[in-house]
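Changelog-linked ticket: nicotinamide-adenine-dinucleotide example.
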Amino acid sequence: MAQRKRSTPALQKFERGVANRKARIGVIGLGYVGLPLACEFAKAGFRVTGFEIDAKRVAALNAGHSYIQDVPAGELRDLVRSGRLSATLDFDALRQMDAIEICVPTPLRKTRDPDVSYIIAAVQEIAPRLRRGQLIVLESTTYPGTTDELVRPMLEERGMKVGKDFLLAFSPERVDPGNPKFHTRNIPKVTGGTTPACSGAVALLYEQIFDTVVPVASTQVAEMVKLLENTFRSVNIGLVNEMALMCDKLHINVWEVIDAASTKPFGFMPFYPGPGLGGHCIPIDPFYLSWKARQSGFEARFIELAGQVNGNMPYHVVSLVSDALNSRRKSVRGAHVLILGMAYKANIDDVRESPSLDVMEILEKEGAKVSYCDPYVPFIRHGGVKKRATPFRAGTLRAADCVIIATAHRNFDYALVSRHARTIVDCRNALKGRRARGVFRL
Ligand SMILES: NC(=O)c1ccc[n+]([C@@H]2O[C@H](COP(=O)([O-])OP(=O)(O)OC[C@H]3O[C@@H](n4cnc5c(N)ncnc54)[C@H](O)[C@@H]3O)[C@@H](O)[C@H]2O)c1
């Protein structure tokens, strides 16, 4: 990597600390992204401090309790006991860090504009404590230009210069919660620095904990990589959701079509329809890009179209519920509907932006009584009300006028669903090869 040769005093000091593991690592925001990253650094022998605003998370971590499904409890406990991992609410300790990773949320405002207030808040904590030789890495997904146009000026405000006095980089987080094959370490890590010294520093640091590091030319490229990946998913899911709606009209089983198309050994990648997009990434990130593109007078049409198609899927699910109830001479008003799966994807506990919440809300507005089963989500807060999960039992399935399979958790007993539910709206093809009568498939 030629970039490394352009060494500066800031970079040299940083390199020594990484080589002898004396470099202290700070992680701001200990959620789905920050906690696994902090653990990975601690496992590699660094002393890691997590900076949080959530006192409950700080207390849990310091007590050795994992609150993120992908972080094994035993592993976290051992790291905390060894003294290599701790958390604090005191941001003054940022001064002692050699590298600081920013892993805070990047949601959308109601207007669908980026809400970078969490990034700003984190950088406001760093800026007055910034010291010579520190590396700051933004990990939160955001629009291209954030690191250079927003973060850099805030850090340089007090006279220090990037690349000379401190180092700044962007590295998109690609973690896929619940994925048994790919986890923090074995997902290749893209890195981009503000200057060559910054690029060298971030690549060097990440080579210590990631199997593969993929350096790119700038922070803007690194920011755009993440948005391309997530827009690619959103657009392809939008396409396949439209195919599902089309197939419904043409009385063709879209799942069979996808399975057969997937046998092509090149040029095709399967995506599957569903009740809508969920999670903190795919429904949100593409709008960070379309917002930024709009600033330059460019309309990102694929993003908007995919957003429309995917955003309408919960309404389509409700229309299938209405068809299912009609088949039994029932109306949505007054019907008891049971949703299987409140998490946005299978085998995880995350309900952020979950389409199941939208389906529930639309059905309730139309007068249905809605309950849900989800072994990963014991309760939800929706519209200010706490709702508890119903136990998954034959009696629960029998009591519902319609059962929606919204999220295909592997520990639902689909034979039981097939045997006992009166009508079923199957959004995930979970009943493939089982029952056909009374099943309304997406
Ligand atoms: N969850 C994923 O699967 C995933 C995958 C890839 C990228 N990302 C991106 O990573 C970023 C973080 O996402 P996440 O899922 O980990 O979010 P999260 O909500 O799980 O965690 C964020 C944490 O940051 C804390 N926080 C908020 N403001 C803070 C502040 N000023 N100082 C310290 N802590 C603060 C919150 O209390 C919370 O614990 C987002 O930009 C997201 O788009 C997430």
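Closing comment: Example verified and attached. Residues 219-250 form the longest helix (32 residues). The first strand starts at residue 24 and ends at 28.
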